[in-house]
Design goal:
Mean pLDDT: 81
Low-confidence stretches: 89-100, 201-209, 403-411, 445-451
Radius of gyration: 29 Å
Order of helices and strands: EEHHHHHHHHHHHHHEHHEEHEHEHHEE
Distance between the termini: 42 Å
Number of domains: 3
Helix content: 55-70%
Number of strands: 9
Strand content: 5-15%
Largest sheet: 5 strands, mixed
Structural class: alpha+beta
Strand order of the largest sheet: 4-6-7-9-8
Length: 488
């Protein structure tokens, strides 16, 4: 039987079974470019494959918001990184456990039971609400999860099938995350009723439909579909192509940065000397000048000369930033220092800057001075975007799930990440501005953002730390910048 590699700490088995029908459908999904169509295709595989549902819940990114789980929402998480997950990569050895080969008949039988309960629960819940029915279907697929785990996970505890809604949700909570929503509770009631063989008021058990379901599910699991044999080779080839594309893009970017550094170094040598002369003469004349208007003019000349010098320095910093000298940093202390440092500027603009993080909660590994530069630049960007008035909030939290569950990031983030969030209630920006927001000298004036190296400098420093920076915004609804750095 085909199988899927496991890298999730939630499961001790090295691999999970994969139905032949699901493998064939995933081949079709991998060859589909349209996101919506890909989601529809993946849902077809999930409907008859509880093991694939479990694999997706354990390995794919969970949504930020706590929403009820449905097959549609899970399918949207089968994104462009699916080849990487399907092929797998080396993971830490957790000890070898002798495992029996996948029992195709047992898996097919369990799948039939799962799907029949899921369909019955969805029918019972449909009169309540369509979304409740969708949640009930997914929970129904996993209602016999303890039995599934005992088949392909030798270390799974031998727990009985859940008999109540509370027991069902307790079993599923590690895999689905928070299940406190009302829809999950209501859907769980229908699943428990369906597992006990209950039918709705006025409903007759659909024996014919049940027989059709059993036949379709067994065919999905035991059929010999040649296309399914192409899943692993296709995933390997797509992953290799993705890596070649990313390596090419990285090489082009590195060459661009080298060229920019040479330009900045040459410009610094050729331009800084005359700028120094201009600033020096302006300062000399300013010292003896008494006319107020002429003093303002000379001060402007001096400040603009220094501004040009700073832009050249920023260009050199962007192209070749100094290696960070990382130390343990308390995000709360750093954030409060930046807010205190910028209090006068924010008060002049009648803007409010607040911190939303407790001291000692978010310890990260970073270069303090460079991270201060990042936060100052981001706050300055928000102040310029808001114009007059407005509110900036800086928060931080420790996300341990990233370091422990995402394949490929375990070495980089062994203790998880610290996510620093800078949000403002300014004008926001349009989606077309998003991809250029971190470009040097990109004119974001239409989006309320300034010129120069402010945000691009932030991106370069965070990237040099091995972290990531991203932004979310809707026109007229402000902007939220998220920085992720290794936790200490």
């Amino acid at each position: 039987m085909r199988s899927l590699p496991n890298s999730s700490p939630l499961l001790s088995a090295d691999r999970l079974p994969l139905a032949a029908g699901s493998a064939a459908i995933l081949v079709e999904a991998l060859l589909t470019d349209t996101t919506d169509l890909r989601t529809e295709i993946v849902v077809r595989a999930l409907r008859y494959d509880p093991a694939l549902v479990l694999w997706g819940l354990c390995h794919l990114d969970r949504p930020r918001t706590s929403v009820a789980a449905t097959l549609d929402r899970l399918a949207t998480r089968f994104d462009d990184r699916l080849p990487e997950f399907l092929v797998g990569s080396p993971v830490a050895v957790r000890g070898t456990v002798a495992m029996e080969p996948w029992n195709q008949d047992t898996s097919a039988r369990l799948a039939v039971d799962s799907v029949q309960v899921a369909e019955r629960a969805a029918r019972l819940a449909h009169a309540e609400h369509e979304t409740i029915a969708e949640v009930a279907y997914l929970l129904g697929l996993l209602h016999n999860l303890p039995t599934w785990l005992s088949v392909f996970d030798p270390e799974a505890p031998k727990t009985p099938l859940p008999k109540t809604v509370e027991e069902l949700l307790d079993v599923l909570r590690p895999y689905l995350g928070p299940l406190e929503s009302q829809s999950s509770q209501m859907a769980g009631e229908y699943v428990v009723a369906a597992a006990c063989g209950h039918v709705g008021e006025g409903e007759v058990p659909a024996e014919g439909a049940g027989g059709e379901t059993e036949s379709a599910v067994r065919q999905h699991w035991v059929a010999n579909i040649r296309l399914s044999e192409l899943l692993l080779p296709l995933a390997q080839r797509l992953r290799r192509l993705d890596r070649l594309e990313s390596q090419f893009a990285a090489a082009v970017e590195e060459d661009k940065l080298k060229a920019m550094y040479k330009l900045a170094a040459g410009a610094g040598h050729e331009i800084n000397n005359p700028l120094g002369s201009i600033a020096g003469r302006a300062q000399l004349l300013l010292r003896d000048e008494t006319d107020p208007e002429r003093r303002r003019t000379l001060a402007k000349i001096n400040s603009q000369a220094f501004r040009a010098h700073e832009m050249i320095a920023d260009m050199m910093l962007f192209a070749r930033p100094p290696a960070p000298r990382c130390e343990v940093v308390d995000a709360a202390v750093l954030i409060n220092e930046v807010i205190a440092e910028m209090r006068e500027i924010s008060q002049q603009r009648e803007a409010k800057m607040v911190s939303n993080v407790q001291k000692g909660v978010s310890l990260l590994s970073a270069d303090t001075s460079q991270l201060m530069v990042v936060l100052r630049a981001m706050c300055t960007n928000s102040l310029e975007a808001m114009g007059h008035g407005g509110r900036i909030e800086i928060s931080a939290r420790h996300d341990q799930s990233i370091g422990s569950s995402r394949r490929g990031e375990e070495a980089a983030f062994p203790k998880g990440v610290i996510e620093i969030v800078v949000s403002d209630n300014g004008p926001g920006f349009a989606p077309e501005d998003r991809k250029h927001l971190f470009d040097p000298f990109y004119s974001g004036r239409e989006a309320g953002r300034g010129l120069g190296f402010g945000l691009s400098k932030c991106w370069r420093i965070i990237r040099n730390h091995g972290g990531a920076i991203d932004v979310e915004s809707t026109p007229g609804q402000g902007a939220t910048f998220r920085i992720k750095l290794p936790a200490a």
